[in-house]
Amino acid sequence: MPVYTYVGTNRAGVKVSGERVANSKAELTDLLRREQITVNRVKEKGKEFVLPTVGGGVNTKELAIFTRQFSVMIDAGLPLVQCLEILAGQQENKTFKKVLTGVRSTVEGGSTLSAAMRRFPKVFDDLYVNMVEAGETGGILDTILQRLSTYIEKNVKLKRAVKSALVYPVAVLLVAVGVIVLLLWKVVPIFAQLFAGLNVDLPLPTRTVIAISNFVGSIYGFLILMFFAALAVGVKLWYGTPQGRYAIDALLLRLPLIGILLRKIAVARFTRTLGTLITSGVPILEGLDITARTAGNAVIEKAILHVRKAVEAGRTLVDPLRETEVFPSMVAQMIGVGEQTGAMDAMLQKIADFYEDEVDAAVKDLLAAMEPMMIVFLGIVVGGIVISMYLPLFELIAKLGGG
């Protein structure tokens, strides 16, 4: 039997690692899950260095379409194996097709659907599998799949909003930096040679721009470029550590405009995920555990785990949520009302709807605020470089005209 190394976290949030003997990665993952260990990485010993596959994943949109079609087929009364066979046959993504074929074969062998899906954690995460398991147990698999598809579709919409908020300013910034570097590296030296041939006194702005251009074109400019590249790699590696991830995520939440947007996104994701899980019959403690792992931010994850420990100790959700100082007081109050009235799942969905609308509004406000700032920045920098290059020519023309 092969030996596997694993890295994960236990119920207390402490990182654990070790080696185990198992028939497969899926078997080891199931074993560790029964021991209440959340697995982050499993590798076969001796085969740690594996070339990554390119373009072989299953994106969220494909998963949402599959779930919606699956729910319709189950609701229509088609047998489970036949549904999986039809969906696998019409799937264009080869990786997803292979996964669905594997799920169908496992179900055909007598396994439950949730156990079969658990063998493919990269496609079907804990939230997906636990909801399917709750649907199988309660005999409402079609309803659960409908809720899952709605959840995934809303999650896709939320991610699209985040991308639209980040892609535009990043793209404009990259183009601006490229234009400025091109001007300093290729265009300004041509003007510098012209001015040297004319033997004219250069004004201060022109001398400054030429000095920056010489610096960019020298070895020092290359060294600074390498420094920033190494800094980016270092930050990325540091973000891969628990301490680095927590520090960077905490910094992002404190940023003036981005921090508010990220906090609203976190609240929307937390309430939507927990509400969907509770509605589907997943126990509150397990729901909080899954929600923490899908939070997408280390600070939010730590806050949710703190809430989970408090609930496990017999407390309600309201006070621990307030103690974290991460979630707005309005969210805690509304969840408290939901607990008192016994309609917490519905209340969580309402909070999620409200904050998803808030995210849309925040994205529009962010783009509206950043667009004029970027235009002004580009105008000042690029326009300043161009004007500084033409200043000596204006003075020379003025002298020739006076002569």
Would you write up a description of this structure?
There is one protein chain. With 403 residues, this protein is mainly alpha-helical. It is elongated and about 95 Å long. The termini are far apart. The longest helix has 59 residues, at 344-402. The protein has 3 domains: 3-44; 60-124, Type II secretion system (T2SS), domain F (Receptor-associated Protein, Up-down Bundle), CATH 1.20.81.30; 147-403, Receptor-associated Protein (Up-down Bundle). Mean pLDDT is 82; it is low at 48-56. It has a 3-stranded antiparallel β-sheet with strand order 2-1-3, with helices on one face. Helix 6 packs antiparallel against helix 7. Strand 1 (3-9) and strand 2 (15-21) form a beta hairpin. 75% of the residues lie in helices and 5% in strands.
CATH superfamily descriptor of the largest domain = Type II secretion system (T2SS), domain F
> How many extended strands?
3
CA(first)-CA(last) distance: 95 Å
Order of strands, main sheet, comes to 2-1-3
Instruction: Indicate the CATH topology of the largest domain.
Output: Receptor-associated Protein
Short description:
The chain is mainly alpha-helical and 403 residues long. 75% of the residues lie in helices and 5% in strands.
Secondary-structure blueprint:
Blueprint: E1 3-9, E2 15-21, H1 25-34, E3 38-44, H2 60-75, H3 80-89, H4 94-108, H5 113-118, H6 126-138, H7 141-198, H8 204-217, H9 219-239, H10 242-254, H11 258-279, H12 284-293, H13 298-312, H14 318-324, H15 329-341, H16 344-402
Helix pairs in contact: 2-3, 2-7, 3-4, 6-7, 7-8, 7-11, 7-16, 8-16, 9-10, 10-11, 11-12, 11-16, 12-13, 14-15, 15-16
